[in-house]
Each structure stands twice: as structure tokens, then as C-alpha cells.
Amino acid sequence: xxxxxxxxxxxxxxxxxxxxxxxxxxxxxxxxxxxxxxxxxxxxxxxxxxxxxxxxxxxxxxxxxxxxxxxxxxxxxxxxxxxxxxxxxxxxxxxxxxxxxxxxxxxxxxxxxxxxxxxxxxxx
Length: 124
Known about the structure:
The chain has 124 residues and is mainly alpha-helical. The protein has helices at 2-33, 43-54, 56-77, 84-117.
């Protein structure tokens, strides 16, 4: 039983590390693409996977990572906005969209877990 718990924990950590590495790949591709192409929507994939497979806390963590990567790529590679205020507004709106996804998937995941692990109703 103890081995199963350790394997499950290891699998969760490995999944999170894989999602984080894939988000880093997106950030590198975003830098490579320049300021005319923005790949921020691709972060939804890994934020959604983390939220569904690992829970809301992992979804929030991947959202924070995505925001840091967005700000980092804008700082390193430049941005197409006329001022930092517009950049901050754009990153803030993307952050809100990411958190909405985390909240919705977290609620849906919670309902599914409750439905799956709920004891069967007696027909009596």
C-alpha cells in the first residue's frame, strides 16, 4: 500500500514537471516567433490538464507559471504594445481567463470525483 502511495505521488510530480517543461517550450517558441505572433492561448492546454488531472492547486500554480512566462517573454523579446500599461492590462486579462478555466475545471472535477466515488444508492 505504501508503494502505491509513493508511485501516485511520483506520477503527480512527474506530470506537473512535464506540464511546466511544455509551458517553457511554449515560452521559447513565443520568443522565437517575435512580437507579431502571440502564443498565450497554448498555455490553456497545460493549465487545463493540470487543473483536471492534478487539482485546483496545481491549476493555480501553472497559471502563475504561465503569467511569469508571459511577462518574461515580453521583457526579453519585447512586446507590441505602446506602453507598459497596455502590456499589464493584456497580461492581467489573460490571467483572469486562466483563472476562470481553473475554477470551472476544478468545479467540474470535484463533481466528477463525487459522482464516481459516491456510494451506490439503494433501490429499497
